[in-house]
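Ribosomal protein L11 methyltransferase structure dump, as promised
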Amino acid sequence: MTPPRADEDIIRQNILDMVGHAGSKYTPMDLEREICARQNISRKAVRRAVNTLMAENRLTYTQFLGHTFVEISYKRPVETGGGVILAPPDAVVTPRPEQIVVRIEAGAAFGAGDHPTTRMALKLAAWTFHDHILPKPAQNCRVLDIGTGSGVLAAAACLMGAARAAGTDIDPCARAEAAGNAALNGLTDRMEIFDSITALEKNSPGLPPFHLVLANLRYPTLVRMHKAVTEISAPGAVMIFSGFRPREQPELLKTYDSPRFDLLRTLEENGWCAAAIQKRP
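C-alpha cells r here:
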C-alpha cells in the first residue's frame, strides 16, 4: 500500500534534518539504515524519499577518497538561523526585512557553510549585533575571523553591519574561496584575507584592535590562540568560538575563565558546541 502523502513528507523532512544537522557525513547505506531504524519504515520508502530529494535539488551525492556520501545540495538557499540565508550565487532569494543573504560558492573549504558549528557561530554573531553586545556601534566595529574557510562568517558579519572584517587561513585554497565569496557579496572593499594574524599585522602597522573575533576551529587550536586573541581584541570585545565537543567545553571555558573574560552564552547542536565570551573593558 502506498503511504499517505503526509507520511512521505515526514520521511523526507527527517532525512533532511539528519543530513543537514549531522556531525559527520552519511553514506547512502548508513543513511538508509539509520532512517529505517528510527522510523520503522522500509528501505524502499527511504530510497524513494532520497530519490525525490535528489530530483528536487535538496540533496546531492558527493565523492571523497573513493566513497559516496549524501549531503545537502547548495543549489538552493538554506536558512541557518540567526536571520541568515546562505545562497548559491545565482539563486533567487526574497529575504524578510530582518534577514540577510550571504552568497556562497560551495567549495573545498567547508561545503557552503551549512554545518552545525557554522550555524551556531552565525546565530551568536547575529545575537551580538541584534542585542548591541559589542563595545562599539556595528558600523564602527572591526571583525577578525580566524580560520575563515569559505569566509562565510566574515561576510555575514559585514552584512550584519560591521564596518570591516579580516579573515585568516593557512590554506591557500580557502583564502582563494574566501576572497571569491567576498566579491560575490560586494564586500571586496570591506573584507581582507591573510594567511595568518602575523601577516595581517605586518600588512597593517598600528593595527587597531578588533571588536568581534570569530573562530570556528577545533578545541586544541582555540586553546592555543588564547594569548593572541587576548592581545588583538579591544576592551569589551566579543569572542565567538565554535567547533568543540561538549566534553571539551569545560576545559575551553576554563582557559578563558579569568578576571579578563565573562561567559555570555553557549549553544549546543548535534554533538558540537559554541560559546560567546566577552573581554572585560
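The two ends are 66 Å apart (CA to CA).
lmk if u need the other ones
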